[in-house]
Amino acid sequence: MKGRALQLAALAAVALCSCSDGRDPASMPDVLLVSLDTLRADRLSSYGHTRRTTPNLDALAARGVRFADAIAPSAHTAPSHVSILTGLLPFAHGVFNRGLSNPNVLALSDGVPTLASLVAEAGWRTAAITQEGQLLPEIGIARGFDHTDFVHDSFGGRIAALDGYLAGEDRDAPQFVFLHTYEPHAPYLPPRQVGMEPFYGVYTDRAYQGPMRAATEALLDAPRGAKIGAPQFEAVAEPSADDIAFLSDLYDENVRYTDYLFGTLLEVWGSHRDLDNTLVVVFSDHGEAFYEHGAFGHHEGLYRELTHVPLIVAGPGLEPAVVDEPVGLVGLSATLLELLDVDSTADMEPAFAGLGASGPTVPAPVYPQLFLRESGRSYDAGIDANEHFVLRRDGSAALEQLFDRRDDPLQRSDIGAARPDSVRDWRARIEAVRAASRVLAERFPVTATDAGAESERLRQLEALGYK
Asked: What are the alphabetically sorted keywords of the record (predicted)?
């Protein structure tokens, strides 16, 4: 890790800004927590992408702390966000994605405090602005927020909602705002251009006239474009290299558009609040696959393309730095609470190094988890600086894969047979993590409701490509 001493100094500086009781609101930093759904880390310029897709995110990273190896808690929206906002692993909190075949909601136990509820108790005004989709308020995602807006179905609409919210708020009251957008989620529909700025067609090959282009342009030209699902995934049974390249390039165009809107978001925030006194945190809940392992999207698996996500933190007292060690976003709640001098709970996954002084000296392995409600299939992963282990369970059958992260970053060669000791070790660690999760799940059982079965909510799922 680079700049460790600076980060400890930054912690002390920020901690002085806030005390648990009787804290001065003028000394409490604002917090802007931004989730850019389905954003792969390797598609940001600051994370090594050769295209200049993300100038606004790169500028934030240049003045803040960039976590080069941040790992999502899951490959699905609901479990990943609930983990990030509670500090519990997915199998501990039990909230998993729903689909058209099982639209009922799994609701977080009332006994689980959230990041928002803890900072609200400490004196921050709290607001959540997002679209429903997988993040229905009934799953528990709204817990602890004084103001919620789950209506607007575009990033631009959410920015406008934020503008309206902040305009009505006391400028002297510290704000904690969570804003989530389904950009750059499929079906990847950047506008053809905004003003004089082009987006669609910047990276995609104009010579390609295959089924991916036809499916995409049918959506772009439709009156309700992005509300029609993600038909590109099914446009061809066996996609060619050109098909895959077009869809991947289209994704980059949508990442570029997402970054453009992120710049607008910061401008709106700065028109109401002091950006220099704002802790800005940007992350994604999971990545996206482009046939690296035989599939598009993020429905199944815990490979690198689905778990490696950006995490950028910038704000008062934080010097520019890069953290190279793996960190799990499930520890983000505890880490931010530590920065804000607010107590976390004993059940939360611990803070990670890079922002807080209590992070482990030796980085701990990270354990993403995934459960498919429609099939009962589950995935567990164990990830450290050297290896990436994936365990898939399907009834009584299990599939284990081990990858060398340094020699095989694209995860093309399973080396489990050559490293049986590593496989046994990872299997045992994952069983221990699962056992600990079961203990918490018994204490905090989810409740199933039919809140997600309304026709409009089903349409939202279909619009995002869920079945």
From this structure: Hydrolase
What 8-state DSSP symbol labels residue 25?
A: G
Query: What tokens were used for 412?
Result: 């093309």
Residue given tokens 């340094």 in the structure block: 406
DSSP string over 36-52: ETT--GGGSGGGT-SS-
Report pLDDT for 18. Answer: 40
- Is the four-CA dihedral 425, 431, 437, 439 of positive or negative sign? negative
Q: Identify any residues that bridge with 106 across adjacent strands, giving them in sequence order.
A: 448
Read off the pLDDT of residues 237-266 as tens digits, 9 standing for 90 and up.
Answer: 899 999 999 999 999 999 999 999 999 999
Strands 321-323 and 125-129 come out as unpaired
Rounded Cα gap, residues 296 and 271, in angstroms: 39
Please enumerate in sequence order all residues whose Cβ is within 8 A of that of 412, keeping only pairs 6 or more positions apart, or say none.
none
C-alpha triplet 300, 112, 350: angle, nearest 5°: 75
In this predicted model, what pLDDT tens digit does every residue of 179-195 receive, in sequence order?
999 999 999 999 999 99
CA distance 427 to 191: 46
Is 4-463 a domain of CATH 3.40.50.2300? Answer: no
Q: What is the rounded CA–CA span in Å between residue 50 and residue 53?
A: 9
Above 70 in pLDDT, residue 300?
yes
Q: How far is CA 201 from CA 135, 204, 249, 372, in A?
A: 31, 5, 9, 35
In the chain, where are the structural domains located? 4-463
The C-alpha atoms of residue 162 and residue 331 are separated, in whole angstroms, by: 26
Residues 6 or more apart whose CB falls under 8 angstroms from that of 456 comprise none
